[in-house]
Amino acid sequence: MDIIDYIKYIERNDENAVYIDSIKGNEAKYGDVKLHPSIKKALASKGIEKLYSHQAEAIRLIRDGRSVAITTPSASGKTYCFNIPILETIISDPQAKALYIYPLKALAQDQLKNLNELVKSLRLKVEGSNQDYEIAKIYDGDTNSYQRTKIKNDPPNIIMTNPDMLHLGLLPFHEQWSGFFSNLKYVVIDEAHYYYGVLGSHVANVIRRLRRVLKHYGANPQFIACSATLANPEEFIERLAGVPFSAVKESGYPNYTKHLVFWKTTGSAYADAESLFSESVKRGLKTILFAKSRLVTELIHTWVKMGARTGKEKVSAYRAGYLADERREIESELFGGNISGVISTSALELGVDIGKLDVCILLGYPGSMMSFFQRIGRVGRRDKESLAVMIALEEPLNQYLIAHAEDFLKREVEAIVVDPYNREIFKKHLQCAASEVPLEDGDDCYGQKMLPALKELCRDGLVAQSDTGTKWFNQGKRHPQRDISLRSVDEQYSIIDEGTGKTIGTAETSRVFYECYEGAIYLHRAEQYLVRKLDFANKNVLAGKVIVDYYTGDLGREDIAVLSRIGSRQAGGLSLNYGEVIVTKQVTGYAKKQLRTGRLISKHALDMPPLKFTTKALWLEIPSRYSEEPDFPGGLHAIEHAVISLFPLFVLCDRNDIGGMSTPLDTDTGKPCIFVYDAYPGGVGLAETAYHRIENILREAYRFIAGCECDDGCPSCIQDPRCGNNNKPLSKDMALRLLEGWTQNLDVMDPASMDDREIKVSPVRAGKIKAVEEIKIPVDEILFYDLETQKSAEQVGGWDNKHLMKMSVSVACCGSWKEKFRVYREEDIRKLMKDLRAAKLIVGFNIINFDLEVLRPYMNNGDLDSLPVFDILKTVYEKLRRRISLNSLAMATLEKGKMADGLQAITWFEQGDFDNLITYCRADVELTRDLFKFGRDNGYIKFEYQSERVRLPVEW
């Protein structure tokens, strides 16, 4: 049965099918490009006689040595745009290499299969062998250790990987990949639009690190990026990769008419989705239904199976959380035509090839126009018409879009943003870059952008600057990459069938709390499992197969608690704040709902540990007098939505990178508040940046809401598709009244000055000692001190017995003393203690852990602990996390060293040679003084690192 008959069937439901339109198709446009005979023959074997115009254009640009961005629509054959010229290069130069980067493992598997089919037709051989050559291999987290070693030792022409493995497995160990990297001609970034927001910031830095490593090996590859249709393709992809691109945007692929239906429900949107899906499959139409959650995906699959209205046609659910083998099996059956319908989360939005589909059903607006077109682009991939149906959910945003369907279809695809220089993320990757290949002044990948961040990294002891000031080395952990996760990766729980003992699926920690609590019904491909036990210790969920007439949903709440204020200021009658907060999400119980109708059966309490993470937030404290205004909560909520919507215009990020909450009364501040927080543990600098720009954001929010022609609020101003409260309450009028009053007295901040603001560095602390920045005592008023001992550590039973080593001699130096140096023997302890108590500051080297511990038996503990002491070694250790001797620091910084060592000093004491002993101790005091003075005068001291003399910033 064809698609037109199904559309006529839908049209009969005229109270539901409120808007029907079509996107007209167009004829194919072909391009003329000469191909290598072997490739031409291989394409012909797949039924391809001519290339489309965009494919020909991309091939010509790549042959011309350009980096190319291909942003034609879904299913337009973008893969051939890069596979053909890359294979041509490999045929002419068998040593040539290419790196293909995919956002998901499933995409790499899918593309490897397609590439192998093409390469098989080329019949490439390994020299001296009759076996077909494996031109491409996957190197990712699923590649076993044996295969990894094999690939590293003998890399294929093409390696397929993902940004995570590139970051953790290739770049830190680039020496093992030198042969591959030195011959790399192409880097392909597929599905580039996936890398936006915070993930995009990470990936942009990984790509820059890759470019640096490649330059180290003399390689200068072309970059090829493929992306969905974007509003700003060149700008986005150039910021992502850091190189200029030539864009290919006009597609020659033939588009056949795509019919669009906007569906308004009169009952349950979920029931309508199941009905439309079942009817479509029953009519022999290959159908995909996109749902917005795993639970809804499984529920609809269950209803479809219960209804048994699809006849003999096989259907399946598809989502993350299935085991990898199960997902591959479903993909294979979809591609082979064995499955006629699939209900999926966004997991099938990207380009895994699942064959030719006729109908796409969207259960709810997916949240962006880009996702809308990506999903409906899944259908119509053959020479026949197709259908896309968008079913409106009951919440206000979906209902508004259905009521304004014609305007909806005129909306532009969104521009997406990526910020390679997000302060916190950029710093972390700079340290990684320094660990891979030392950074140099004028670095091609970073330029002047890196200098402020490097200054901060040097202050933190994570990066060391060369004495010449032109090179920087990693000074922290050997592999800082291991401390950076590109994505928010939770621990995985295994879901185990108690009947068989087999793992049937997985779930991240954040999902386990909401889907796998004890008593939950876990749905897996239309089968029901009752969760018996949630084992936090072993990361297991034990569930038993059941047949029940209900499903479950969590009940919970979210709270924000203020831990500390880092910044606060008054503006426009508001208190603007930035600080550290704890976001708490608590599952308090669950509800049982009737399986077919969703009718509430019962509620049950749970005693679950909360999910908490500490992050950074900005918040507005609003005077309590406003709380008496009518619709005040709705006004606050509307402003929160507007601020979050505008956030990416002022802070380069994605909407999903931040969270928000508004409350008429916050328990921590005692005021009405609007919070916006970084949605990543620890924070990634987004809220901090916005704190410096909040005046401009609030002004723009007022213009944004006031400029919308709607009466009561709409998706174009204050409704948010991600709102956890279903966009209730909202008051456009109250939001405008509040913002108008606030913004009249706000200063407008210069965006340029905001962008170039200096990075603030927290003062370095040293145990109980005051911060050095706060001391700044003139050097002539500082007492510099050192002592020698009568016995060695070995003689007293180890370093834990320093109090038994006894002082042989001490030397102190102070510029304000007439004699400059004073010498103390054991019998002069009282005189020594008097001088120490009188000092404004005592500076020594290892004075806290050694000198004062040796003196402890001679003095009152309270006297010792109250001394104003600064320990150079302690400061060095806190920055570098390793000890460096006074001799090493003095030689590198002052080009002079110690005249002997501590054991020689003990020998002199035993021999009664006090002249040499005092001379030696005095020389150490002079080194300590001169080292401190050098650091005070220059802002750094020096040490040897990797055969280089490098600087350690100090603020003495």
TrEMBL record:
It comes from the Bacteria. GO terms for molecular function: 3'-5' DNA helicase activity; ATP binding; nucleic acid binding. Residues 272-443 form the Helicase C-terminal domain. InterPro entries: DEAD/DEAH_box_helicase_dom, Helicase_ATP-bd, Helicase_C-like, HRQ1_WHD, MZB, P-loop_NTPase, RNaseH-like_sf, RNaseH_sf. One of its GO terms (biological process) is nucleotide-excision repair. Gene3D superfamilies: P-loop containing nucleotide triphosphate hydrolases (3.40.50.300), Ribonuclease H-like superfamily/Ribonuclease H (3.30.420.10). Residues 105-132 form a coiled coil. This is DEAD/DEAH box helicase. The lineage of its organism: Bacteria, Candidatus Desantisiibacteriota.
